[in-house]
Amino acid sequence: MLGWKKKASRPSKDNLEAVSDALKEIESFFELNGFSRSRSAHVEPSSVGTDEEESNGDEEFDDEGSERAADFDREDLEISVGVFISELVKAEAIEKPKPRRAPTMRQIFVKLFGKKNKIIKMVEAFEEHTEGYFDAIVYDEMSAAFEALLEIRAAISDELSKYAQE
Amino acid sequence: MLRNSQVLGKMLEKRMAAAGPRFQAEVQHASEIIIFGSMSVGYDRSNSDLDVLCVAGSEYCKFKNKSLDLIVVPSGITRNRSWLESELATHVAAYGSWIKGAPTWIVDPRIGQNAIRDKRRRVSAFMRCLYTSWARLEACFQIKYATKLRRETQRLMLLERNVPVPPTAVLDDSWASPTGSHHDVSERLRRFSPVCPSSFVDCLLSRVDFQVSDDQMHSNSHYNS
Predict the structure, then answer these.
(1) What is the ipTM for the molecules in this complex?
(2) With 50 as the cut, is the pLDDT of residue B221 above it?
(3) How far is B137 from chain A (nearest CA, A)?
(4) Which residue has the higher pLDDT, A67 or B97?
(5) pTM of the predicted model, to two decimals?
(6) CA neighbor of B39 nearest in space, from B64, B84, B86, B4
(7) What's the mean per-residue pLDDT of chain B?
(8) Chain A within 8 Å of B82 (Cβ-Cβ)?
(9) Taking CB atoms and an 8 Å limit, are B129 and A79 in contact across chains?
(10) Nearest CA in chain B to A98
(11) Sign of the CA dihedral running B169, B170, B176, B182
């Protein structure tokens, strides 16, 4: 079981700031892959898998399915999530996980925000879209995951602004 | 040895309840339902999910929860050469148990160059990315990703030898066995990324061994029970 510094339905300002900072790790992964915070400036998917296809003239096969939008490696994104959580440990927002129990992003947010917080649905959507298909994520799923990430960012900003008003 | 398809069918029936009406309909109307992965070969652990491939309809879709990993592929896919030569298709051809339909598309399963090239690129990219972030990762993530990288390298080496990739549990067992492929994998990883120092690969592999000793402990207790 993981141990946690704080179990809160409303996270502390310090923890919110830590999450806000650490979230940049995941955002930068998306930015490196051409996704932008301005929602209209998404990268256009390119076509892969067609220029180097082997041609053997075998008529029994149909190669239509080989033309597809660019895929993204799931591992790279997964590592950015790992860094995100590691940064939260460093900031002491959460306790150090046990070596054999790498927590998920959802587990982290549930502990920090509580199960019923609206942000949990956003995190679940993010994880669902980044589940991938054989460790690759298609463009549409990446795009949807980025939308979910923007919503998470907005929700954290809202929470922080509530503290500013108090 | 493959598991009895009736037993697998019952397992699927139980786990489908959580998948919701859309996926239940896909499964109901599928021309083929195939169980693959560790469950199919009886190599599962207490927390293993059930891997299912459905050939149905005209779209790809996927459902995943803790106990079920369901992939639906369109019916026409079994005539698509790049799919037939993919890691998934060749794995299913070798280790799948058909609980509906017949394996008519398995004529001459062979691993395509695209599958090998994709895997090589992925292992290389993953290693580079891991190297960049390594020092910033908590131990639990170092172990998790190092294990993943080791498995991916094992898979690549099999694909290059035109051998279908076995279930993950089989890979782990072969790694943990005294005749395991430690040397080959570590040499391969060193060759992959010349920019990464040897000390990084050593550190990476030490994390993998840490995980393997844990897995052995769990699998031993599972088999003994």
Answers:
(1) 0.77
(2) no
(3) 5
(4) B97
(5) 0.80
(6) B4
(7) 83
(8) yes
(9) yes
(10) B140
(11) negative
